[in-house]
Amino acid sequence: MGLQDFLELKQEFINASTPETDELQGHYAVRLVTGFLPGIRFFSHRKFFPDDVALKRGGYNEFLGRIRIGNFKIEPAKSILGDGQQVMRVNYNGPGNPFWLRPLNDELKKVREGYYLGRGIYIVAGRAFNTFYFSLEPE
Asked: What confidence tens digit (pLDDT) does each residue in 28-38 have?
């Protein structure tokens, strides 16, 4: 992905709205958004947000229709990047997740009805880095 593509995705993210906690329910297809290619879906990746996600019970990632990894909790919050964005944070820092997944936080914004743009943010040595963008669409 070129710098221009990354900047365009960043601007689209900034212009999007913050979703409500209870609007994220059910299964969502996850696609890596590169900016110059169609969204790429690896191993049938999807996220599951249960009906009670507003109670902070959280959800999980699923691959190949049966492999669950990456339990998470969601909450509205200010972006970890410190850019003033209000986001829906998907936090993986919880028990049961592998050590390499715990420093990941996804941040979600609603681009339009049924389409969400997310950015994956890793925290390394106390610093946050936006490492990729992805989309979510209900299945």
From this structure: 999 998 765 56
Q: How many CA atoms lie within 13 A of 2 on its CB side?
A: 5
| CA distance linking residue 51 with residue 54, whole number of Å | 8
Q: Whole domain around residue 89: which residue ranges?
A: 3-138
Is pTM beyond 0.90? Reply is no
Backbone phi and psi for residue 114, each to the nearest 5 degrees, phi listed first = 80, 5
Query: What percent of the chain has a predicted confidence (pLDDT) above 90?
Result: 59
Give ∠ CA 123-128-131 in degrees, rounded to 5. Answer: 90
C-alpha neighbours within 13 Å on the C-beta side of residue 53: 27
- Residues of the chain where predicted confidence (pLDDT) is lower than 50: 1
Domain count, the chain: 1
| Dist. CA 18–CA 96, nearest whole Å | 28
